[in-house]
Structures are given as structure tokens and as C-alpha cells.
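Weekend entry, working from home. Most of the wet-lab plans are on hold until the incubator is repaired, so I used the time to fold the two sequences that have been sitting in the queue since the last round of cloning. Logging both here for the record. First:
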Amino acid sequence: MKSKRFELLDAVITAFLVIFALSIILPFWNVVVISFATQKEYMLRPLMMFPKTPSLESYRYLFRDGRILTGFGTTLKILVLGVPVNLFLTTSMAYGLSRTAFPFKKLLLGAVLLTMLFNGGIIPLYLVVKELGLTNSLWSVVLATGVNTFYLILMRSYFLSLPESLMESARLDGAGEWNILLRIVLPLSMPIMATITLFYAVDRWNEWYNGMIFLRKASLKPLQLVLREIILEAQTLAQAETSGASVEDPLFSNGMKMSAVVVTIVPVMCIFPVLQKHFVKGVMVGAIKS
């Protein structure tokens, strides 16, 4: 009887996990399919597994001008510049706050945690960036979010889980704090480093708000803002076509939206499997000890 109960429980858990996985996979697959479908087929079958007449028209319109390539270039620059800055600031501050002898540690940690509840707002931030002369510069976007408080707490928790005896032995051998951080702590912290790197990379890849506030030049607009402009143009043309106005090139606005989603998430999906094993371990270990 006991083994049968376990078998029944296993079957229930497996069925639940399969249903849960399908609830995640099927909507994503539907997004991909709609991006390759035609408007007529979508109107007949909004939920489809495979398009009968695949079309690249949505992607063709998305890439037909140079704006999206400019957006890709800007976002890559923000990624290349921003992630190292984020990692340097987060790692150095997390290491300092994890050391027992760090002066005013509790006061600084409380000030950091306070930023999770309150912030100065966008107007003071804009005024500071303007006074520094960084508007219409990629550095305004890079420096606007130097440290994410949640990521800092995760990394500090991981550093606290490392044996203090390792650091003490290095200090007895004459090593300074930077040597300890670079030669002992960071090599032992690859899981959390991979995790935080992935977090920051995704944040930078999806950057749009600071770009909308600080960047005015069309050549500096990040990918997300460029995609938004293209989709809004497609929606405007679709509405004009619906109202009876003559449109030279009728567009499938929903297909445009889905193709924009696919273009945005494919690079992240390519990176995530490489860092997945470190990602899981880093989140679990970094959340154990605070």
C-alpha cells in the first residue's frame, strides 16, 4: 500500500509539472508561430501550432530600414560598457560590507537597504545627469543604474558564506584587501558572479527607460525604443487600413509585435543555457546566509 501511494503521488506530481511546463512553453511557441503567420491565417486561427503558409513579412518589415541595426549597436554598447561598471561597483561594495572589520558597516548597509524603499525620483536624477553634461551620451544610461540593491545583497550573502579563515590566512601572508578579493574571493565566487552577470546583462539588454529620458539622438536609441517606434508605426498603418484609408503596404500589426518579441529574447535565450548551472547554484547559495 505504501509503495502504491508513492507511485500515485509521483504520477500526480509528474502530471502537474507537465501541465505547468506546457502552460509556459505553449504561449511562447504561439508567439513564435504568429510572428511567421499571415494576417488572414491569424484571423481564422488565433491559436495555432504551425502556420500553414509561413511568411517572413513581419521580420522583413522589422529589418527593412537601418533603425533596428542602430538599436542593436546601441544596446550592445550599453551592455559592454554597463555590465563591467555594474560588476565592479557591486563586487567591491559587497565585499566591503561582508567584512566584519569594515567601519560603519551596519550604517552603510542600512543606507543601501533604504534605497529599496525610497529613491529621489527621476527629476533629481535628470538634473544631476544634466549638470554632469552626460545627456545625449551613453554614459548617462550606463551610470544612471550603477548598483542594483537586490543583486548587491545576493553577492554579499555569498561572500559571507565563504570561510573567514581563508581571508585571515592571506592577511597573515601580507595580502591586501584587493589581492584577497581578486585572488581568493572571486575565484571561489564563480556561481554568484555568473548569476549577477546574467542579471545585469538582461537588465542592460532590456534598457529603455533611462534611454527614453536621457537620449534624444536617433542614432543613440537602444533596441527596445527602436522596436517600440516600429511597432507603433505598424499599428498606425493597420488602423488607417481598418478605417478605409488607402495604404500602399498593409501590415500585420500582431505579427510585428510577436516578431519584435522574438528578436528581443533570442540573444538572451542563447546566453542563458551557458550560465544556467552557475545561475541556479549562485541563487541558492547566495540566498542561504544573510
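Second, folded right after the first finished:
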Amino acid sequence: MIFTQKEKSCGAVLFTEQDGVRKYVLVGRGPLQSGRDCNCGFPKGHAEKNETERETALREIKEETCIDARIIEGFKKEINYVMPNGVAKEAVYFLASYKNQEPKKSPCEELEVLLLPFAEAIDALTFESAKEILRGAENFLNTQT
């Protein structure tokens, strides 16, 4: 009998408005400014004991970007994939916003942080599934105004 290891992560498409432009926060490892040789995505991570999905997403945002965010109701996306090590992964993404804060690299994390408008954020994301989530978030926000 084969047992497949499973992991679950929760995070968010994190955004703010600056001078009338919506900008998204991305995190990753590697030379993010050049866009090469990096793995760039949304803030996310594993749930800790007794945390809800939303609590995990908000904690991970804080840990990875130093931002206190709020979840936007009505948006939730899930993706499932198998990691290179064979572990089945479920990732849950919410939509979250913040105001009057500056995202920055946390001293506790090895992740770099970018703040980009939509078109640049799409280009920076590593995986097509993340690009689809960002497109969905942008469409959701555009229908809310």
C-alpha cells in the first residue's frame, strides 16, 4: 500500500492602492528584480496548531511581508499539485488588502518582497496557476467598484 504525503498551505493575493494604481505584493527566493532563477509567488505557508485557513493566511502575510492585512470577503481559490518530492500539496488563497504600510523583507524569512502593478506582477509570477489566481483576483476587484 502506498501512502501519499499531503501538505496544506494558506495565503493570499495581497494588494494595496498607491496613487490610483493597484499594486500586488509578491514574495520569492532568488534574484527577484531580474525575474530569473527565482520562485516568485504569493505569501503563504503551513497552518499552525488549531489555526483556521484565514488565520494562517494573515499570519503568513505578516511573517513574510511585515504587513497587517485584512481579508476581502468573497474570494477564495484552491489549487492542488504534486511537488517535485512527490508530496501532494493543497494551497488555499484569499484576497487581502492593506493601507499605509510598507511591505518589506522580514528578518525571520529568507524571502525577498516585491510590490508591482498587475502587468508586472503577472510577468514576475513563476507558475501559471498563480497567474490565473492573480487574474481572478484582478477581475474580482474590477467588478467590486
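Plan for Monday: verify the second prediction. Residues 128-144 form the longest helix (17 residues).
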